[in-house]
Specification:
The complex is a heterodimer of chains A (739) and B (226). Chain A is 34% helix and 18% strand. Chain A has 739 residues and is an alpha/beta fold. Chain B is mainly alpha-helical. In chain B, a hairpin with a 4-residue loop joins strand 1 and strand 2. In chain B, helix 1 packs antiparallel against helix 2. Chain B is built from 13 helices and two strands. Classes of the chains: A alpha/beta (739), B mainly alpha (226).
């Protein structure tokens, strides 16, 4: 018995010792949050030790299934970047000098009030960001449109997804995608159009790869003028000539109709057709599209007619087709038309409203959808899908905000490009710029950076040396990511909360705090009565309740527990809506309807015939090449955050111009040579990198590097509907520097 | 016959031999033993006392030691196989998923492509070298203790830090790995496990939610109906 007891004791003692020997995790405590970078909106777990972020992992319960990218993996380093702005600064005698918050905010309020009183409210503007938290953007929108009386509320989402929003509104009557990332799990045809998810949305590409790995018959097509990493890894790459890809979509529609691949039952029940003048019959649409035969467009597209026909057939006959697109479709003078046609291909073939079949515009920033599109914080919008130009919509918003009737100006404000032109010519005299870097991100950027010098410019920033901060008259230190609390809404209508986990450095404050303090000083304290993130959220949540954006069921309490919820979500028991317009999923689809596109009064979606119009950027002897821009894996946007993280900087290196061997040889350029790239908008110097896969006649550069600011030469033509600039197509030339 | 089966058989044979020798010892009549009595062993001749001592040495020490050794070797090496892990039902979801030809998890993809030909669980969950084996065994003992005493709850959760060395030992020298520039710049973070390979390359196993009893996937992962 003694031996047995001793043996048992040894066994338990060993076990106890082993329990104690399990190594501690990499952090003391873990919190659910959202990645700060791109529009994928990955759910993350943030590991904290001693009040510092020490580790970040993908959250397995998130839509991203535990996957994040190298940028997200470096989020701990983001909280420790050097050169954070820690005190307000006021420009005195040409130099930014430290000031107190009271000095800075009093000055801003005084100057804004003076401009409003002397030049009218339209001389004031707000330029925001798809990176601010929803509560912040909602408050800024309310302050400017409802308080100051200026609809000059715009922001960088105009530069990235305005065409997508305009496309969805045209087709479905309401903005935002009908489907979800989860549709990738069911698709057997994935149509990647003007997007490079391998670098720009890696967790989404991982999603695609998982689908391909588990279902070998999944077919991936990539439409991109460049042999991007995504094109390289796709099953079929269509290297269209820049600026021509609406021809491809129209030709696919023509083939689908001509070869009778149309889902007639779906069209009869759920779709109406239009041209530029009004509703038309299907036969008229067929007639209009008939000129876009593959043979007619193949020469201009630069791909073969048989390939167009093949892709159209595969799209239409797939069990489930999902389209994913980003800036290659949006940043175009025909961006809205391209978006309409991408959605329309799904409607023509019935590839929508079922698992795996959806048209999905992937967005670029973590809160462009929830923060800006949904809150209506663009110059022509009001919250929850309302329009400034609509008197009833204005009246509804005035009532909810407790404003006298007629308080909101009936005139849409300036869209982004026009807003900076207005700064340039003095129509706008005072501007508040928050959480964005337009001096680097605007097309024709030198021109608009200079425009800011003509205006009283207030910039809320995390660092003092961004291109935009350099133009500030007043620079306000902003909190970043988990230094503040609020909600972000990404591309699949999913809202997620970012909880405050640490204090911002020095005197930095949240943008919400800055806005509420400014509102108080401007005399709008009663209007901006919600002062905490949760109070603002509750106001906005209840605002949404009688709209088809209804997310009243998303309380902070729920958002803290769950890895995000997709709206509509009308009550606290609702699980959220994975597929919009589908009975049983979307609460706004009545019983028995099956599918209902309730955004339009007819309850049907609309396919509008969109004729191809060539880009204003046409090749010439002077500018015989196309310049197109994009991002790289390890850097994000203008690099104010990722450019300060050595692991990311080291991996990406300085920005370069990627050129073809043929163009390089013709100009005597070798890899590493300094070249001068010119366009009608200016010139910029940078190093060349010869890529053997680059098509002749094409130049590519990413815009993260302020030392090689490619946007100096990028065209600023805008789409006539969405007003989004044409970043992707600029006629250009290059030469070896010094020649 | 697998190697582990040979060891199981060997341990059984040794045990039987040991029992037989002990019985033989029990039957020896000590009074008949004397230094003078000689016993011819074929290769040499020894005294009765010496023979008794030799028999006792073999029966009481050598055979038990060999039995324990062989059995322990089985415990240490024989349990490397996947089925050994699957003996505990909490591991079944991982193994069902790994063998699912349509699963998207890292484990399933490695299994499906034959990237790890055998002992798949052990290959990824034992760190490099002898120390890694030791740690894995200690963890195995801890798991066994938890399992047999019922001091766990489903879904089980990984404790500690999964070492990236388990990924890097195969991947770090491949051209595909070296072609990704950020692998080089984050090498130090991967080495000290402050950044996980799984961040970018996906979940290795079904999620906790899927492995929670009552979830829509639970029965399937436990080997039940699809």
């Amino acid at each position: 018995m003694g031996g047995l007891g001793a043996t048992t004791a040894v066994a338990f003692a060993s076990w106890g010792a082993l329990e104690l020997m399990v190594p501690p995790g990499t952090a003391d405590e873990w919190h659910k949050s959202v990645c700060r970078f791109c529009g994928t909106g990955c759910t993350v777990r943030v590991g904290m030790t001693d009040g510092q972020v020490v580790d970040v992992r993908g959250h397995e319960a998130g839509h991203n299934k535990g996957v994040i990218c190298v940028k997200g993996s470096m989020l701990p380093a983001l909280t420790r970047i050097e050169d954070r702005l820690t005190t307000p600064m006021i420009r005195r005698n040409g130099e930014l000098q430290p000031a107190s918050w009271d000095e800075a905010l009093d000055l801003v309020a005084e100057r804004f009030a003076e401009i409003r009183d002397n030049h009218g409210p339209d001389a004031l503007a707000y330029y925001g960001s798809g990176q601010l938290l929803t509560e912040e953007t909602y408050t800024a929108n309310k302050l400017f449109k409802g308080g100051l009386g200026s609809n000059n509320v715009d922001g960088n989402p105009r530069l990235c997804m305005a065409s997508a929003a305009a496309g969805y509104v045209s087709v479905f009557g309401k903005d935002e995608p009908p489907g979800s990332y989860a549709d990738i799990d069911y698709a057997d045809f994935i149509f990647i159009f003007g997007a490079n998810p391998v670098e720009c949305h890696p967790p989404l590409w991982e999603h695609v790869q998982r689908r391909r790995a588990s279902h070998r018959d999944t077919f991936v097509v990539c439409v991109d003028p460049r042999v991007s990493p995504t094109a390289r890894d796709s099953d079929l790459h269509l290297p269209v000539i820049p600026g021509t890809d609406l021809l491809l979509l129209n030709a696919m529609a023509q083939v689908i109709i001509e070869d009778d691949l149309v889902d007639h039952e779906f069209l009869n029940k759920h779709v109406l057709f239009r041209d530029q003048t009004g509703f038309i019959e299907f036969d008229r649409f067929k007639e209009l599209i008939s000129e876009y035969t593959p043979e007619n467009v193949a020469g201009r597209l630069g791909i073969g007619a048989d390939v167009i026909r093949h892709v159209a057939h595969r799209f239409a006959t797939a069990n489930a087709a999902t389209s994913l697109w980003t800036m290659g479709a949006n940043q175009r003078t025909q961006g809205t038309a391209i978006n309409i046609m991408l959605n329309s291909l799904h409607l023509l073939t019935g590839q929508i409203c079922r698992p795996g079949a959806t048209p999905f515009s992937v967005t670029g920033q973590p809160n462009a959808c929830g923060g800006v599109r949904d809150t209506g914080s663009l110059s022509h919008l009001l919250p929850a899908g309302r329009a400034v130009a609509n008197p009833q919509h204005r009246a509804e918003v005035e009532e909810r905000w407790g404003l006298p009737q007629g308080r909101i100006s009936p005139n849409p404000g300036f869209h982004a490009v026009e807003l900076f032109r207005a700064m340039e010519d003095g129509r706008v005299k005072g501007a508040l710029i928050m959480c964005t870097n337009p001096a680097q991100s605007m097309p024709d950027s030198d021109r608009y950076a200079a425009a800011m010098q003509n205006c009283f410019t207030v910039v809320s920033e995390i660092v003092a040396d961004s291109e935009t901060a350099k133009a500030a008259d007043v620079l306000l230190p902003a909190a970043l990511w988990v230094e503040k609390e609020g909600v972000m809404g990404q591309g699949e209508r999913r809202y997620q909360i970012v909880e405050k986990l640490m204090e911002p450095p020095g005197e930095a404050r949240s943008d919400l705090w800055i806005l509420t303090e400014l509102a108080e000083r401007l005399g709008y304290g009663d209007l901006i009565s919600a002062r905490t993130p949760e109070d603002v959220w509750d106001e906005w949540r209840k605002f949404s309740a009688d709209t088809v954006y209804n997310f009243e069921g998303m309380t902070y309490e729920r958002l803290r527990k769950e890895p995000g919820l997709q709206w509509p979500c009308p009550d606290e028991d609702h699980p959220g809506t994975v597929r919009r317009f589908v009975e049983g999923d979307d609460p706004f689809v009545p019983e028995g309807a099956g599918i209902k596109f309730y955004g339009h009064p007819e309850g049907k979606a609309r396919i509008t015939f969109c004729p191809y119009v060539p880009s204003p950027e046409q090749l010439s002897n002077e500018f015989p090449l196309y310049l197109t821009t994009g991002r790289v894996l390890e850097q994000w946007h203008t690099g104010t955050m990722t450019g300060r993280i050595k692991e990311l900087n080291g991996a990406a290196g300085p920005a370069v111009f990627t050129i073809s061997p043929i163009d390089a040889r013709a100009r005597g350029v070798s890899s590493g040579d300094l070249i001068v790239v010119t366009s009608a908008f200016g010139e910029v110097e940078g190093r060349a990198r010869i890529d053997k896969d680059m098509r002749p006649g094409l130049l590519f550069a990413a815009f993260y590097d302020a030392k090689m600011l490619v946007n100096k030469v990028v065209a600023d033509h805008v789409d006539p509907v969405s007003r989004e600039p044409e970043y992707k197509v600029t006629a250009a030339q290059f030469r070896k520097a010094g020649v | 016959m697998e190697v582990s089966d040979v060891f199981r058989l060997g341990a059984g044979v040794f045990s039987l031999v040991g029992v037989g020798l002990c019985v033989a010892l029990w039957l020896v009549r000590l009074e008949k033993m004397s230094a003078e009595r000689k016993i011819n062993l074929g290769i040499t001749t020894i005294s009765g006392i010496a023979f008794f001592k030799l028999l006792a040495l073999v029966a009481l020490f050598a055979v038990p030691a060999a039995t324990v050794g062989v059995a322990n070797y089985h415990t240490v090496v024989g349990v490397h196989d996947v089925d050994s892990c699957n003996l505990c039902h909490v591991m079944t979801p991982m193994i069902t998923d790994m063998r699912d030809p349509h699963s998207e998890t890292l484990a399933a993809r490695h299994y499906r492509h034959g990237w790890i030909p055998k002992d798949q669980c052990y290959e990824c969950h034992s760190d490099y070298g002898l120390a890694g084996d030791m740690r894995a065994k200690m963890e195995g003992y801890r798991h066994l203790a938890r399992y047999t005493t019922g001091t766990y709850s489903e879904p089980i959760e990984y404790r500690g830090v999964f070492s990236n060395s388990n990924c890097l030992k195969c991947h770090s020298d491949t051209p595909a790995f070296r072609a990704v520039s950020s692998h080089v710049t984050v090498a130090a973070l991967l080495k000290d496990n402050t950044m996980s390979c799984l961040n970018c390359h996906g979940a290795a196993h079904p999620t906790r939610e899927q492995r929670t009893p009552g979830s829509p996937d639970y029965d399937r992962l436990m080997g039940g109906a699809e």
